[in-house]
Design goal:
By secondary structure, this protein is α/β, with parallel strands linked by helices. It is 32% helix and 24% strand. It is built from 12 helices and 18 strands. Strands 1, 11, 12, 13, 14, 15, 16, 17 and 18 form a 9-stranded mixed β-sheet that branches. It has an 8-stranded parallel β-barrel with strand order 2-3-4-5-6-8-9-10, surrounded by 6 helices. It is globular, with a radius of gyration of 23 Å. The two termini are 40 Å apart. Bound molecules: ligand LLP. Ligand LLP binds at residues 42, 45, 86, 146, 185, 188-189, 224-227, 268-272, 308, 312, 368.
Amino acid sequence: MDLVEEYDSPLYVYDESTIRSMARDFSGSFSNAYVNSRVSYSFKAFASPALAKILEEEGIGVDIVSGGELAVARMAGFPAGELNFNGNNKSRQELEEAIAYGIARITIDGFPEIDLLNSVAGEQGIRQPVLVRVSPSVDAHSHRLTTTGILDTKFGFSIETGHAELAIEQAIEAPNLDLRGIHFHLGSPIFELEPYTEAIAYVMAFAADMRDRYGLELHEFSPGGGFALGYKRDALPLPISDYANAIAEALRAGCDAHGFDEPLLIVEPGRALIGRAGVAVYTVGAIKEIPGVRTYVSVDGGMGDNIRPALYESEYEAFSVNRATEAPDGQYRIAGKYCESGDILINEASLPKPKPGDLIALPASGAYTVAMASNYNMVPRPAIVMVADGEARLIRRRETYDDLLATSKV
Ligand code: LLP
């Protein structure tokens, strides 16, 4: 309540100790299961220089997908040796910037990128370490819009169609590329272990084939991210250590079966690392009761700061901040303030009957919320604070109308 008084609403509040404990859960679980492993946080879930600093202190790498995310990492002075670059359509400029910064590795995802990257690396006089992203045709049973490992996807070279083989052959032949290994990402959130283990077995067999035919050396191996997050108490994911054990076991089995030395294992968690550390806080405004139907409770944010319910029918829970001790007396539909019928944050939230001015918190709002925020309806994006040791500090101020107009001309 004090934070909203100071920084206004809506407000995103991140808890530093949760970030650190999740970072340690990931690095500890994976290094226990497989010593030669590396955690590379997927910056797209929430990118901020303050977060980059914390991750650096925790020994976690960062996986970027654009020149803009690189700029955020650069602002924090994040070490280039701990950066990866993913993405299905990187521009020449983005590749030039990344290589100039000294990025550790770039995951190739498309035929034009092989030539482009080879020429950019050549111009900068280096041999760039790369991975090739393959698509293993495994369905991870996530939402249609967040599934990426299947045949019909824009991501990755398909093993099934023979394109992955062609890409490996070309990457090995490119003089300025140093092919370090193979990457895939199945989609997200993934609540089961089987998609990972199935895909690892398949991709390791493919890697063995590529070694036998083209001399592929498997120094590095990445099954991407996609680890699930508990958005609601009745849909909790498996512990991170279960994912780590299953992935490590499958990778080791693949190495044994095909005679590989154990490669460096790189995992790219996004939501599971950052999601629980962020809480969105909104203020209740208009309330519309439709007798016999339902009550709409409108808050001062919505799809502009969290488009996930509208885009993926994602579900969140809500808590009353100022009336936390009161028992819920019914179900209320939490609507946003944007001019769009689909701007609903929660279809049925259990709350004590909301009143204008109440503060409502949505836990587990740290991933793909402010990261995907827009200025729809010309609404300024919210402020973000980081809480640590009982102190809050502003890590991104609320946008102003001047910010919104800064790029426009009459
Ligand atoms: N690695 C790669 C190559 C990815 O494409 C992604 C996510 C990740 C790692 C991290 O996935 P995570 O661990 O965060 O699930 N906006 C959507 C998610 C899009 C994910 C895109 N790629 C959402 O809000 O659910």
